[in-house]
Amino acid sequence: MNKFLAKTLQGDRVVWIIFALLFVISIVEMFSASSMLVHWSGSVQGPILRHVVFFVVGFMALMIVQLVDFKHIRLLGYVGLAASWMLLLYTSFFGGVEQAGAARWIDIGGFRFQPSEIAKLSLIVVVADMVERMQNEERQNKLFWYVIGIIVITCGMIFTENFSTAALLFVITMTMMLIGEINWRKLLTVCAGVVGVVMIILLMAWNIPDDIYYNSGSPILKKLERAKTWVARIENFAGDEETVSRFKVTDDNFQENHAQMAIARGGFLPSGPGTSVESNYLPEAFSDFIFAIIVEELGFFIGIFVMFLYLWLLFRAGRVARQSDSLFCAILVIGVTLLIVLQAFVHIAVSVHLIPVTGQPLPLISRGGTSILVNCIYFGIIISVTKYIQQQKLAKEMAAKATISFNFNKFSIIN
Known about the structure:
Layout: H1 2-8, H2 13-33, H3 35-41, H4 46-65, H5 70-95, E1 97-99, E2 102-108, E3 111-113, H6 115-133, H7 137-159, H8 163-179, H9 184-207, H10 210-215, H11 219-223, H12 226-238, H13 254-265, H14 290-323, H15 327-351, H16 369-414
Helix pairs in contact: 2-4, 2-14, 4-16, 5-6, 6-7, 6-8, 6-15, 7-8, 8-15, 9-12, 13-14, 14-15, 15-16
C-alpha cells in the first residue's frame, strides 16, 4: 500500500498533505454550511454529493496535469487564454447567466462555469512564459508592452463583472513580473495608470445620479453599472455611525453582520460540525462566508490552522521556486500559489470585516464547481514542478555517481 501511494502521489509530500487537509475541512464544512442549499433543493444528500463529485473530477484533473510536459503547459496556456477571451466576450455581451447581480457564468447543457477561472489560469501560464523570454534587455524592450496588453485586456474583461478577481489577478501578474526582474519603473508606471482608470470609474459611479446612470441608454454606463454595487459596498463598509449602525442588521449589511455573529459564537475549542446557527441565515454560508462557519463550529484554533495551511503552501512554493533551475517553472509555481493564497486571505478578511464584501470563495473549501476544478489544477501544477525538481535532482546524483565510478575505474586501470 505504501509503495502504491508513493508511486501514485509523487512530488512534494507537504503539498499533498495540505491538499488532503483542505479537502477534509471542505467536506466537513460543506455538510454543515449547506443548510440553505438543502432547503432550496429539498435534498439532504444532493449538495454534499455534488461537492464530492466535483472534488473527484478535480482530483482526476490534478493527476492528469502532473503528468503533462511543461512544453504542453505553455501551449495550453496560450490556447486557454484565447478561448477564455472568446468566452468572456460571449458572457459579457450575449449569453451570460446572471447571479447575485453579475453575469459571470455560462450555462452549457446544465453545466455552469465561470470563464474567468479559465482566464486566470491561462494568464498565469502565459505571463510565466513571457517572463522567462524577457530575461535580456533587448527582448524585454520588445515584449514588455505586449505582455502588459495581454494582462490589461484579460483583467479588463473580468473587471466589468468581477472587480475583486480582476484586481487580484492584476496584482499577482505584476508580482510575477517583479520577481522575474522585469523593470520595476515600467511596472510602477503601469500600476499607476491602472489605478487611475479604476479611480475614475469609481468616481463616476459615485457622482452620477442613479436615474441617469441606469436610464441614460449609454452602452458605456450600462456596461459599468456594476461599479454602483462596488461603490455601495465601499460606502457600507466605511460608513460612520451616523449613517450606518454596525449593530443593526439591514439589507445592506445582512451577510457581513451574520458572518461576524458566526465568528463571535465560535469559541477557542470546537463545538462540533453541524452546530452552526448562522448557516441558517447566511445565504452564501457555503461559499463567500464559509470561513465564518468554520470558526463558529470548529473554533478559533481551527480557524488559525486553516490560515496556517495556506501560509504553509506559500512557504513550500517559495522553496520549490528557489530549487527550480527553470525560471518558467519557478514563476509559474509562485503565480498559481499566490492566486490560491491571496484569494484565501481576501475571503478571510471579508469574513472578519477587514475589507468590503468581494464574493471571493475560500479555495478548495467553498462550494463551486469551476473553482474546485481550477484550484485542483493549480495544485497539479505545483506538484508537477516538485516532481520535475526531484527528477532533476535524482538525475544529477546519478550522473555524479557515474562520474565518480568512471574516474575510479580509470584510476584502477592506470595503476
